[in-house]
Amino acid sequence: MTVIQPEHLVASVADALQFISYYHPVDFIQAVHAAWQREESPAAKDALAQILVNSRMCAQGHRPICQDTGIVTVFMKIGQNVQWRGERALADLVNEGVRRAYLHPDNVLRASILSDPAGARTNTRDNTPAVIHMEVVPGDVVDVRVAAKGGGSENKAKFVMLNPSDSVADWVLKTVPTMGAGWCPPGMLGIGIGGTAEKAMVLAKESLMDPIDIQHLQARGARTRVEELRLELYGKVNDLGIGAQGLGGLTTVLDVKIRDYPTHAASLPVAMIPNCAATRHAHFVLDGAGPALQTPPSLDDWPQIAWDAGPNARRVNLDTVTREEIASWQPGETVLLCGRLLTGRDAAHKRIADLLARGESLPAGVDFNNRFIYYVGPVDPVRAAVVGPAGPTTATRMDKFTETMLARTGLIGMIGKAERGPVAIEAIRKHGAVYLMAVGGAAYLVSKAITSARVVAFAELGMEAIHEFEVKDMPVTVAVDARGAAVHQSGPAEWQRIILERKRA
């Protein structure tokens, strides 16, 4: 009989979450580096370089890889011969570990979890509760896998009930392009097949904690139908040309993971969940000897890659930029932003829209006239930092507010992650505005360009408050120009054509 103290689980969960906030899994870094080495698309190669540089900076500085430090998911396999000391529920112990990790004073993690999700959506302030899956199994240890899953990739989860005769591969290849780039490729696709609806989703999520081994599988060859499907989808998804950050390129997925389970004769449930460029997960085993703490990897596991904006980057003063000036910017052009900008995400946009609808003024200090807004919810600063990691959030969530913002506030530019939808692109074209893309998964790198930060409105929203940032040489790409030309449409289309022509040759 193994006896485990409650503190062993609490301390192990807290340590794992701190660890994965700033250390990518080494297999993931190696896969991204290999993708960078073979990438031929300049835009995608630049994005991969930023991801790798950001990852090394986070490993050195012990600060979050991404500003979205995730919703915590925990898988626990509890041995039948394990005995727990104390009266507290295991879920309470896990959540105490989450609370301790996210409030750690040396590396504060962003609190993103909201209670009353269909109502007041109130931030719990400590990122609890976690989503916990428990299973009792033979044995005398507790096997725990912990992940922190960002909202951008989680929001792209898909589920379908296929007919038994339908093709899983066809559904995946039809669905992936509809996901856009908000899941921050390159990453992994986790696929669950079988069971029931909820079982398929859990299988997909659990598969994302497996190590990247697709190259080993390619070398060995498939031995099962699931392995055949993994290889087929890995090749065909990358042939779509979506590329890093959706900019067009050779690598969209680093691996495809599949788990299956017996299902009803009338059913074929299939779930697909992507993991993003901020893939974060850890594993530990409790055997009664004490907390199971993570072992730091060697920094030698990270490639020595330098990144700079290049000689052709356009430097822009945000304090003096005009609508006439932005009209000359070209799709795909690198821009270095200097000066002041305002931030705002979903909750802030909703409040602004409500104020405008009632004919009320915006809060003091919130003036968007001839200015840019950055879609971001930053991590709190620590020590001498002015702000924590502050990478972009998925821009499409703000699409429904774009016409109002451009028509009624004087806003001329937006900065976010991934593509814009047709409604937003039309509003951008109509008003002669621009949309700039920052690299998702490079949050710490971006934060180094922010020289000052202050909250100017809606402080009670926490990380969703409106801030004013002053930036120096913040790197972005012109993703939608003032005429409505969008690189997330042209880039993947071009690289899909290139890849197809090579296969025909």
Structure description:
The protein is α/β, with parallel strands linked by helices. The protein has three domains: about 1-25 and about 65-145, no CATH class; about 150-285, 60s Ribosomal Protein L30, Chain: A (2-Layer Sandwich); about 315-490, Fe-S hydro-lyase, tartrate dehydratase beta-type, catalytic domain (fumarase, Alpha-Beta Barrel), CATH 3.20.130. Helix content is about 35%, strand content about 25%. The protein is built from 15 helices and 19 strands. The protein has helices spanning about 5-20, 25-40, 40-60, 90-100, 150-155, 170-175, 195-205, 215-220, 225-240, 325, 345-355, 400-410, 420-430, 445, 485-505; strands at about 1-5, 70-80, 80-85, 115, 120-125, 130-135, 140-150, 160, 185-195, 255-260, 270-275, 280-285, 315, 335-345, 370-375, 415, 435, 450-455, 465-480. The strands form five sheets. It has a five-stranded mixed beta barrel. The protein has a four-stranded mixed β-sheet with strand order 6-2-7-12. Helix 10 (about 325) links the parallel strand 13 (about 315) and strand 14. Helix 1 runs parallel beside helix 4 (about 90-100), helix 11 crosses helix 12 (about 400-410) and helix 12 runs parallel beside helix 13 (about 420-430). The longest helix has 20 residues, at about 40-60. It starts with a strand and ends with a helix.
